[in-house]
Design a protein that fits this description.
- The structure is a single chain.
- By secondary structure, this protein is α+β, with helices and mostly antiparallel strands.
- The chain has a single domain, classed as Oxidoreductase, molybdopterin-binding domain (Sulfite Oxidase, Chain A, domain 2, Alpha-Beta Complex).
- The chain contains nine helices and 15 strands.
- The strands form three sheets. Strands 1, 6, 7, 10, 11, 12, 14 and 15 form an eight-stranded mixed β-sheet that branches. The chain has a five-stranded mixed β-sheet with strand order 5-4-13-8-9. It has a two-stranded antiparallel sheet with strand order 2-3.
């Protein structure tokens, strides 16, 4: 079973970071544990990270961030605005990620309320390491565990009229102190064009380094879209809706001058308050050059052929 509480997992079953970073050794270990084998990261990097879809392995030209870094430097406004707030037990200890239900609705043949475990079983489990780039010009490289979104969508069977997928996140002010403020209109909403959702890179993540997601990383299920800025990765998802019109996402509603629908990593378009041409990799001092589409242009650029990517930001 993919989703397990940390208290249910024996220490002998948790893959150490040094083992995980050795891909061949990890793949052997994963097979013994019944885990999948894929990888993911946050940031632009040098474009050396490549997914071999045939072999299911990742060639890494970059060192993934440590589990400590990944779980203690986060954006998750539902738990506060500081980068350390989401991991603060005083702010997140009341949140309960289990049991979890995701509602599927809209233009789809199989609408229903799905227990997360049942939803995950519909698609193949994978691990991937992607560069993960955040709009504030910081980045990480994160080994994610989860399922390819396209596999799940195919099982749910959207109607031909479905052109977009909308994602809605949980609203629990009693457990998420940031939702007791009016800083954003809750729930948090995100959306993808159907071809973006079906791209093989798009992941529904349920874990990091082979461990279930912690609250601060979007437990128990979140999006990972590696060629887009991090805020597109909706956390703690409770609803997936198939629609025929482009949905408005939360930050687009909040500040349309600064945030658009697509949020593709584009170093030539600065945020009004800071440059996007370079980034600070967490754990490193030297700033890195930001790559177009976060270094994944060869896999995603064709989806935007002919579009003005300065206008459609």
């Amino acid at each position: 079973m993919l989703i397990r509480k940390p208290t249910d997992i024996a220490s002998s079953e948790i893959t150490p970071e040094d083992v995980y970073l050795n891909r061949r050794q990890f793949i052997g270990t994963a097979g013994a544990l019944g885990l999948g084998a894929v990888a993911a990261a946050c940031g632009t990097g040098d474009g050396k990270l490549r997914i071999d879809s045939a072999a299911g392995e990742v060639e890494q030209g970059e060192k993934p961030n440590t589990y400590e870094e990944i779980t203690h430097y986060n954006n998750f406004y539902e738990f506060g605005y500081g980068k350390e707030d989401p991991s603060d037990p005083d702010l997140n200890s009341k949140f309960r990620p289990q049991p979890w239900t995701v509602r599927v609705e809209g233009l789809v043949k199989k609408p229903a309320d799905y227990h997360l475990e049942d939803l995950i079983k519909l698609a193949k489990v994978e691990d991937r390491t992607y560069r993960f780039r955040c709009v504030e010009a910081w980045s990480m490289v994160i080994p994610w565990q989860g399922i390819q979104l396209s596999n799940l969508i195919n099982k749910l069977q959207p109607l031909p009229s479905a052109k977009f997928v909308e994602f809605e996140t949980v609203v629990r002010p009693s457990e998420m102190p940031g939702q007791r403020t009016n800083s954003l209109d809750w729930p948090y909403i995100e959306g993808l064009r159907m071809d973006e959702a079906m791209n093989p890179l798009t992941l529904v993540a349920t874990g990091i380094y082979g461990k279930s997601l912690l609250t601060q990383n979007g437990a128990p299920v979140r999006l990972v879209i590696p060629w887009k800025y991090g805020f597109k990765g909706a956390k703690s998802i409770v609803k997936i809706r198939f629609v025929d019109k482009q949905p408005m996402n939360t930050w687009q509603i909040q500040n349309p001058r600064e945030y658009g629908f697509y949020a593709n990593v584009n170093p030539t378009v600065d945020h009004p308050r800071w440059t996007q041409a370079s980034e600070r990799r967490i754990g490193q001092f030297r700033r890195l050059e930001t790559k177009m589409f976060n270094g994944y242009a060869d896999q995603v650029a064709s989806m935007y052929a002919g579009m003005d990517l300065r206008k459609n930001f």
